[in-house]
């Protein structure tokens, strides 16, 4: 769980690294409106952690910068995964519980089938954001449907998209999970 959150955070750090920070990144109402305009589902009654931007360099800030500067990749993510922000909320809650004192309680709450679903969704989002095509098995006679062209086997060719130095900065656990 923690690795899924970490790898999506690194992905958004990568695509937003050249975007300037602005005080508007902390304007929750503006960010919610931008997210809606792009196509994400947002429930204004439910506070999503992705919109709680502070000064720390974290997923919230990276995502907000991408949202504020209307990165094209977010439109693609919103079309395919309009509920992605709710998945990020779930991962955020699990990650915080695992990083802090609630490890055993959190582990009891995790449903394995949902974990795999989240992993597949996060890998797909990463492949969309980084414009990485997924490996497929055409050599073995398996055909990939067009709708599955981004995510077939959950193997990302991140090394081709990111520098080796960037990959080396990822925690070992994240690197291990990328090859699952």
- Total beta-strand segments: 0
Q: How many helices does DSSP assign? A: 10
Count of discrete domains: 1
Query: Averaging pLDDT over every residue, what do you get?
Result: 77
Parts with pLDDT < 50 across at least 5 consecutive residues? 134-162
Approximately how much helix is present in the residues?
A: 55-70%
Tell me the structural class: mainly alpha
End-to-end Cα distance, whole Å, is: 13 Å
- H-E order: HHHHHHHHHH
Q: Rg from C-alpha positions?
A: 16 Å
The share of residues in extended strands comes to under 5%
The major sheet is characterized as:
none
Q: What spatial form do the alpha-carbon principal axes imply?
A: globular
